[in-house]
Recover the amino acids of this structure.
């Protein structure tokens, strides 16, 4: 964790050391993964992980996009060996190799204009793989690959993807043009469903819905979407969000969102069956719990930690009071106190 | 024998001192007469030779005094004073250490020998002064002064350390500033064992917290040669002529404007839209065209591109039209035209395909400022509102259109100077930087730089990586 507070040589500490507010607000979200450089990617910040019986190597940020150098990224388990091949295409087209346990190898080519670098490969249930990569260093991309078909079956430009521990779900912020902007539209993708089933308009017979659904990837879980014909930006000001925190059993994901200077926790309960829909509930820190009341700004940095506990979410909020003094609130919010959107 | 003298420097000289003091000869020590510059805290030695002299020192009643006085007659405080007299009285040597609180000024060293009238051994010539010898001394305090911060943008500060040769000590400059919240930030690195002279100290780039630094003070913990203690030499508060606005470790991605003639593959349907408003009603006209399919996607991702006719195409969600349900042309799109939503169709190698034609020159979101390849950059801005007000970078401050930034890769030299000519909402939304899963883990901020590359795919437009970023300070 990086401290925002400057250090002063010990001998001066008695003279005039002041902690910065920024230091007090340092974000302490527990990172679910530990990073380490893997020997397979010398000089590149990569994570090596053992996930069940699988061995995975992925690039971690901020490696950025270096399209001429596709780092070694793979997923190897007992049934599939999925490897990104070195970049060799003159136009930057990337190729992924799929080898089944039968020894049959197939390849998948990614369109160069949409994916210049693959950062990670995660095998999901149903013989699919979630591919996360870079479109241009700022915009990210996910692709769903059907391993048996060796085919890209879905995908979109996105921001901030987070995969559930059981590797079934992907939650992310919908993409907006990096230089034009847009509000946060939190979207869930269920890899147990088909591409069509992962659209808002699935099942609607109205062609207007169908046309709109063509442009929607995943199911928007927050803010509320009253109709699939809702535009992607309803003029709200959901612009500031924390990272996603998954429960260990993948049944829920929680994150913070800020709207109109109110910090809220958004709790999304995952569908169990393939036909179910996710359920979104919100708890807003208002009144005495409003950590932003003394500050000119309100953002995800006002949430210093977040954790699941039995039947509840524990949050540590930090901020300042009206006199500028640092304030810390440790709150436990039972699931029952969240309200459906 | 050795006599320890305090601040009243009178003493009775024993009969062993046989000669009057007629001539001062100085030892080649650090207090050499030709230098005549003594530093506070420095131990200086010098000799007084006595080839011939008055009778005073033959008598036990002989009294002498040594002292330093400033021009106005005040005594100069000494931390220590010792005197050694040769057994034959031919030479006296003195060692002095001037107290550390002596200001820089001229002083006079005086030696007086006289007959003590109260002593019976003093023959007749009571109150007679047998010898009085003086010489000027320039007393200098040890000093540590910040001289120049014009290159602090590249981590370099010029410091002048004044002390006798052989002095060494740890320098701890303390930088004072504030961050965007107004909180005080201070940073005090330690530079060990620095010798006197003009020093170019180089700050470790990763350590100073991002902030706007305005003043420097601190101390030099110096030990002059032979001194008994280390002095704390305060660095006088230095106000930087140009504050050091330090964004620290900013990650630079790149964006470009694809040219259709650099694309490969076949064509696809696209539309050019124009909107006109009359009596409160907006009418949008759509013209179906054919563009390279790769080019369509490239423009959609980067926002702007140049087609084979040289026209500048921008994605339809430009601020003049808006986006989503609020877009002026929402509901008027012909079948197949996509320009309301930024998202890509699921499972299809497609994208939005509706564009507006913009008049040259190519500009970004900063009004009236053209984009200069490999020089312009897009600064973080808030996604709230269509004007996209600049957002705080690295917790320090929000940039403004036209701001110049100095980029240093960490080698204490300017890699490039770039100009904020565009805005990047996505750059303000990079998540908690200390989370390994965050997009910009390890970075303090994110900026998108405009590349001269015109390739259709991202292959030629890799990220620039980290640069230690400041406002120029020269």
């Amino acid at each position: 964790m990086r401290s925002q507070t400057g250090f002063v040589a010990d001998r001066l500490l008695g003279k005039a050391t002041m902690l910065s507010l920024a230091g007090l607000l340092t974000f302490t979200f527990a990172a679910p993964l530990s990073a380490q450089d893997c020997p397979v990617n010398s000089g590149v910040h990569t994570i090596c992980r053992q996930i069940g019986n699988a061995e995975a190597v992925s690039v971690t940020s901020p490696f950025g996009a270096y399209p001429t150098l596709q780092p070694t990224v793979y997923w190897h388990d007992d049934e599939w060996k999925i490897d990104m091949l070195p970049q060799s295409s003159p136009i930057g087209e990337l190729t992924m190799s799929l080898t089944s346990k039968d020894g049959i190898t197939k390849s998948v080519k990614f369109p160069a204009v949409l994916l210049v670098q693959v950062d990670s490969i995660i095998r999901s249930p149903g013989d699919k793989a979630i591919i996360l990569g870079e479109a241009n260093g700022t915009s990210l991309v996910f692709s769903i690959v059907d391993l048996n078909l060796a085919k890209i079956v879905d995908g979109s430009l996105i921001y901030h993807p987070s995969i559930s521990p059981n590797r079934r779900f992907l939650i992310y912020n919908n993409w907006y043009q990096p230089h034009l902007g847009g509000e946060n539209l939190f979207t869930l993708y269920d890899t147990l469903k088909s591409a069509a089933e992962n659209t808002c308009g699935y099942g609607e017979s109205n062609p207007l819905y169908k046309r709109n659904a063509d442009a929607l990837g995943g199911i928007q879980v927050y803010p509320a979407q009253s109709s699939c014909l809702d535009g992607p930006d309803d003029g709200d000001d959901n612009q500031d969000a924390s990272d996603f925190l998954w429960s260990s059993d993948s049944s829920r994901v929680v994150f913070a969102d800020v709207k109109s200077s109110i910090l809220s926790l958004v709790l999304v309960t995952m569908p169990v069956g393939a036909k179910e829909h996710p359920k979104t509930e919100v708890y807003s820190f208002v009144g005495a719990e409003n950590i932003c009341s003394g500050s000119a700004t309100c953002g995800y940095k006002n949430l210093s930690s977040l954790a699941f506990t039995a039947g509840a979410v524990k949050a540590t909020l930090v901020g300042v009071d009206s006199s500028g003094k640092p304030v810390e609130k440790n709150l436990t919010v039972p699931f029952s106190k969240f309200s459906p959107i | 024998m050795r006599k320890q003298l305090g601040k009243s420097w009178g003493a009775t000289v024993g009969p062993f001192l046989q000669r009057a003091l007629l001539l001062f000869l100085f030892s080649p020590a650090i207090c050499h007469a030709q230098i005549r510059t003594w530093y506070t805290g420095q131990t200086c030695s010098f000799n007084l030779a006595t080839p011939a002299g008055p009778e005073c020192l033959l008598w036990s009643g002989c009294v002498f005094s040594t002292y330093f006085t400033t021009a106005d007659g005040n005594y100069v405080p000494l931390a220590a004073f010792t005197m050694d007299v040769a057994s034959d009285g031919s030479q006296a040597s003195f060692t002095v250490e001037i107290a550390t609180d002596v200001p820089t000024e001229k002083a006079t060293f005086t030696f007086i020998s006289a007959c003590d009238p109260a002593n019976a051994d003093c023959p007749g010539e009571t109150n007679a002064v047998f010898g009085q010898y003086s010489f000027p001394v320039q007393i200098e305090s040890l000093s540590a002064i910040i001289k120049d911060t014009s290159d602090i943008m590249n981590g370099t500060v010029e410091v002048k350390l004044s002390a006798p040769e052989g002095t060494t000590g740890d320098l701890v400059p303390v930088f004072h500033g504030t961050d965007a919240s107004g909180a005080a930030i201070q940073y005090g690195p330690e530079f060990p064992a620095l010798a006197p002279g003009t020093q170019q100290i180089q700050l470790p780039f990763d350590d100073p917290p991002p902030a706007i630094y305005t003043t420097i003070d601190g101390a030099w913990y110096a030990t002059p040669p032979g001194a008994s203690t280390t002095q704390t030499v305060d660095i006088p508060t230095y106000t930087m002529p140009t504050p050091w606005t330090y964004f620290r470790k900013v990650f630079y991605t790149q964006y470009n404007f694809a040219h259709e003639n650099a694309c490969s593959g076949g064509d696809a349907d696209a539309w050019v839209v124009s909107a006109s408003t009359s009596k409160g009603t907006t009418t949008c006209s759509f013209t179906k065209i054919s563009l390279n399919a790769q080019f369509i996607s490239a423009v959609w991702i980067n926002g702007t591109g140049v087609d084979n006719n040289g026209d500048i195409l921008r994605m339809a969600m430009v601020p003049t039209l808006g986006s989503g349900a609020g877009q002026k042309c929402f509901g008027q799109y012909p079948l197949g035209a996509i320009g309301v939503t930024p998202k890509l169709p699921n499972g299809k190698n497609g994208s939005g395909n509706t564009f507006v034609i913009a008049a040259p020159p190519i500009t970004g979101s900063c009004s009236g400022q053209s984009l200069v390849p490999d020089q312009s950059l897009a600064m973080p801005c808030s996604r709230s509102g269509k004007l996209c007000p600049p957002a705080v970078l690295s917790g320090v401050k929000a940039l403004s259109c036209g701001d110049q930034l100095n980029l240093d890769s960490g080698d204490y030299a300017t890699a490039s100077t770039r100009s904020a000519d565009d805005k990047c909402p996505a750059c303000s939304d990079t998540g908690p930087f200390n989370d390994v899963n965050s997009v910009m883990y390890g970075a303090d901020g994110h900026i998108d730089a405009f590349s001269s590359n015109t390739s259709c795919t991202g292959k030629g437009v890799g990220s620039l990586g980290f640069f230690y970023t400041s406002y120029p300070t020269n």
